[in-house]
Amino acid sequence: MTTTGLDDLLNTPTPPGDWGPWRLDVANYALTHAGNRYSIDLRSCVTSAEVLDWIAQIAGKTWGEDPTVLAGLVVALDELLDFQGTLCSRGKSTTRTVESVIADVDAFAAEPAHKSVIAK
Fold first, then answer.
1. For the whole model, what pTM was predicted?
2. pLDDT tens digits, 71-97
3. d(Cα 58, Cα 35) in Å, to the nearest integer?
4. Which of 36, 39, 105, 119 is deepest in the core (most CB within 10 A)?
5. What integer is the mean pLDDT of 55-67?
6. Got the DSSP string for the chain?
7. Other Cβ atoms closer than 10 A to 49
8. Which sequence spans correspond to the domains of the chain?
9. Are 43 and 5 in contact (CB under 8 A)?
10. Residue 7 phi, psi (nearest 5)
């Protein structure tokens, strides 16, 4: 029997949460709705206001009224952008660089544990 060290546990990527119909289009740095191909350019998500605007836009769509659509979007955005940690920590709005968003998306996509949410 082997034991897993703390370093191994801390460095093991967590599988993504339930993104519902959303998938990551790595080549275009976008979240895409699998049902209608609606796309959100993650490079436009550099402020908390921009992220909230996307959430509100989707909530206003007829197909966005499905709870799995909106909840999946929020989970996906948070897992990709860590928006509380990087955009609105302690209630203060901050601005990220497009390059930091690209780096986070690339790092997320590189993890084999995340392949279930990568668009094919």
1. 0.85
2. 999 999 999 999 889 998 888 888 999
3. 13
4. 105
5. 94
6. -----HHHHHTSPPPP---TTEEEEGGGTEEEETTT--EEEGGG--BHHHHHHHHHHHHTSSGGGSHHHHHHHHHHHHHHH-HHHHTSGGG---B--HHHHHHHHHHHHH-GGGGGGB--
7. 12
8. 20-117
9. no
10. -60, -40
